[in-house]
Design goal:
It is built from 11 helices and 12 strands. The chain has 331 residues and is α+β, with helices and mostly antiparallel strands. A hairpin with a 3-residue loop joins strand 11 and strand 12. The structure holds 6-diazenyl-5-OXO-L-norleucine.
Length: 331
């Protein structure tokens, strides 16, 4: 447990980071996403300032909060990681790998391209791969949604995690591309269950609402080997944590994944509502929420904040690679 003095220093720095990024980045926003509407670029800057929050949670269970940390937002694509982990637990490596690969596609999240050599979606982070993963978790099985919610509540250590049915209904209104992808996949034998049931379950998992504080705790659970650092409850077996983090690292940020790994170097996952979750194994979970999106569909402020935290705390996965254990840092 950090001393009060250390806690105060971290909180001051986090507040400073929050205030500085709050004043930046509006001019970098390519658009916003609203369920039932899709992407939009407001004609004139919106009067109402957008919500913004940065939360950190350590593997020791300590939480540091800045901004609108209790404001709920839809998980959207961030939900794909948990369902991938759950599919691995329920079906095992072999069955899951037969249905969805682990290769970065380099394409946008909703691209309708498949790994034709293996007749499967490239990875579980793009919509096609997520539909295959949701199908594995049991598209038709009425209990499947409860299974997904139950595991999410364990990650977050909070019972308040629910599906926002109004977000779900709105998502169903603009689901043509996902529906087309799912029917195409079933025609190629990449989906086994009922397409409408699988699509509905996928869009319900996207419509689960969390706070930024919960997002940081969820990330800390992954950083802590799959056990929630605050409650001790296990959400995922350690051997599958490795798989989920590996796929997050290579595919979590879609066609920005390469730049993210190069510049920030922390396994992460984004969602179109403006959430970003990043995991520093053994150390820290980071949650950022800011709805303004870049051209890749990732939060602009979320990306900038993660880049600065990674740089300032030396969190890049290869940060020490230049450090020669014997001779010290490279000249
Ligand atoms: O299925 C969709 O397209 C949306 N419900 C989720 C997409 C998303 O979050 C992409 N992430 N950046």
């Amino acid at each position: 447990m950090a001393s009060q003095e250390t806690r105060d220093r971290i909180e001051r720095r986090l507040e400073e980071l929050y205030l500085r990024h709050l004043a930046l980045h509006d001019d970098e926003v390519a658009g916003y996403y609203e369920s039932g509407v899709g992407y939009y670029k407001p004609e004139i800057p919106e009067a109402e300032p957008k919500p913004f929050s940065i939360c950190l949670a350590s593997t020791g269970g300590e939480v540091f909060l800045a901004g609108d940390h209790e404001r709920r937002f839809a998980l959207q694509s961030i939900s794909k990681m948990f369902v991938y982990g759950l599919a691995l637990e329920l079906c095992g490596h072999e069955r899951v790998l037969a249905r969805v690969g682990v290769e970065p596609s380099g394409d946008a999240f909703n691209s309708i391209v498949f790994d034709e050599r293996n007749n499967r979606p490239f990875n579980p982070m793009v919509n096609a791969g997520a539909l295959a993963t949701t199908d594995l978790v049991g598209g038709e099985d009425a209990a499947a949604l409860e299974r997904i919610l139950e595991v999410l509540r364990r990650y977050a250590g909070s019972e308040g995690i629910e599906v926002d049915e109004s977000v779900f209904e709105a998502e169903m209104l603009t689901a043509d591309r996902n529906r087309a992808t799912a029917y195409l996949m079933r025609s190629e034998g990449m989906l086994e269950g009922d397409v409408e049931a699988t699509l509905a379950l996928y869009l319900r998992q996207c419509s689960v609402r969390v706070t930024c504080r919960e997002l940081a705790l969820i990330a800390a659970t992954l950083a802590n080997g799959g056990a929630n650092p605050a409650t001790g409850e296990r959400a995922l077996a350690p051997r599958y944590v490795r798989d989920v983090l590996s796929v997050m690292h290579t595919c979590g940020m879609y066609d920005f994944a390469g730049q993210w790994a190069y510049r920030i170097g922390i396994p992460a996952k984004s969602g179109v509502s403006g959430g970003i979750l990043a995991v520093v194994p053994g150390k820290l979970g980071i949650g950022v929420f800011s709805p303004g999106l870049d051209a890749y569909g990732n939060s602009v402020r979320g990306t900038a904040v993660c880049e600065e935290i990674s740089e300032r705390l030396g969190l890049h996965v290869f940060a020490d690679a230049g450090e020669d254990a014997l001779l010290g840092p490279a000249p």
